[in-house]
Amino acid sequence: MALNTSAEAPIPVGEVSRLIGGWIDKLGPVWVEGQITQLSRRPGAGVVFLTLRDPSQDISLSVTCYRSVFDQVADAVGEGARIVVHAKPEWYAPRGQLSLRAAEIRPVGIGELLARLERLKRSLAAEGLFAADRKKPLPFLPQLIGLVCGRASAAEHDVLENARLRWPAVRFEVRNVPVQGVHAVPQVIDAVRQLDTHPEVDVIIVTRGGGSVEDLLPFSDEQLVRAVAECRTPVVSAIGHEPDSPLLDLVADLRASTPTDAAKRVVPDVGEELARVGLLRQRALRMVSGLLEREEYGLAQALSRPWMARPHRLVEEREEQIAALVDRSRRVLRHRLDRADGELEHTLARVVSLSPAATLQRGYAVLQHEDGSVVRAAAEVADEQKLRARVADGEFAVTVVPRA
């Protein structure tokens, strides 16, 4: 509960320390896992002092235990070992210091570590952090390579030396960090993030030499795996040797079996590239030469044909064909005109012979009423009716006389 204090009514330091101790005493025992960074076993002392650190974060706690508790695991643990302690939080009021009083200490065995890593691996894989479609391609020729490695380590020497042998102009941005121990994880994460935000870094290599399972544990830390998964820059993992497989290998965009292999996978070999360029030039020259030879052969074949020797020959041949076709068309047209003329004369003769004028020429006449209609029967006329008679050379009026 909050205390009622003010500048005019403060409480003493001792009271604050006492209250804090009271709140901490209410906490029950807890199981805590960490890595031993300091170990103090004074001869004859009945209490052993430890500093337990979180490998993933920059946080430590003091741990005390009776010598009899520590002696049970003294042969199995030391500085750098990972342990699990069953302890109760305690507050040392005179110094205002928090510590853990351990009643039991258990070393974390290799089997247990591997089982935890396997569970973490399955969990991260279920999130899709190891999916192949998340892998980013490496640039063909990186201008600046970010390198995270131990200071003056063999891994650093292998990467730098092999990369420069393959491509002498390659440049590196090196971040030297601890690659094992309690400070490794946060510093490796910080180095990776710095290089990822560097505007000129094209690819990042995280590397270290081989080691035991405990030595390589920082590179299976969940926070480091997630930091690499968030990188926008391609990351190459080159941890240990071929059999070693920390979780960083699975989340990285490329896994190299060794630091030397990382240099070979990231940097092209200038000799090989020059040889490849030479081969491509030779291939291109052969293709162009072959094309020119084929075209020259085709041109020679074309020039050797008769119509190329006498270009007008084709025109002359066509001229003869056209003249023959014109003559033939004239003959056909003349024949058709002659036949049409004969048919026309025959038709005209028939028309003339069948026309009314021809009938009138033979002495016939056509009688018409005054309205112009033709008289077709005797019953159509009456006595004294005026009619018109039409003959071959004209017409005249007639009068119908009574019948006798």
List keywords for this structure.
404 residues, alpha/beta, five-stranded mixed β-barrel, five-stranded parallel sheet, 42% helix
Question: Your description of this structure?
Answer:
20% of the residues are buried. The longest helix has 44 residues, at 311-354. β12 (386-391) and β13 form a beta hairpin. The chain has helices spanning 13-25, 67-71, 110-126, 154-166, 184-197, 222-229, 247-251, 259-266, 270-303, 306-309, 311-354, 356-361; strands at 30-40, 47-53, 60-66, 82-92, 97-107, 144-149, 171-176, 203-208, 235-239, 254-255, 366-368, 386-391, 394-399. Helix content is 42%, strand content 22%. It is α/β, with parallel strands linked by helices and 404 residues long. The model has no long low-confidence stretch (mean pLDDT 86).
Please tell me what the overall shape is: elongated
Provide a count of the helices.
Answer: 12
Q: Could you state the order of secondary-structure elements as H and E?
A: HEEEHEEHEHEHEHEHEHHHHHEEE
Give the N-terminus to C-terminus distance in angstroms. 164 Å
Low-confidence stretches: none
Secondary-structure-derived class: alpha/beta
Q: Beta fraction of the residues? A: 15-25%
Mean pLDDT: 86
Tell me the Rg in angstroms. Answer: 58 Å
Name the strands of the widest sheet in spatial order: 1-2-3-5-4
Strand element count: 13
Helix content: 40-55%
Q: Tell me the major beta sheet.
A: 5 strands, mixed, barrel
Helices and strands in order:
Layout: H1 13-25, E1 30-40, E2 47-53, E3 60-66, H2 67-71, E4 82-92, E5 97-107, H3 110-126, E6 144-149, H4 154-166, E7 171-176, H5 184-197, E8 203-208, H6 222-229, E9 235-239, H7 247-251, E10 254-255, H8 259-266, H9 270-303, H10 306-309, H11 311-354, H12 356-361, E11 366-368, E12 386-391, E13 394-399
Helix pairs in contact: 4-8, 5-6
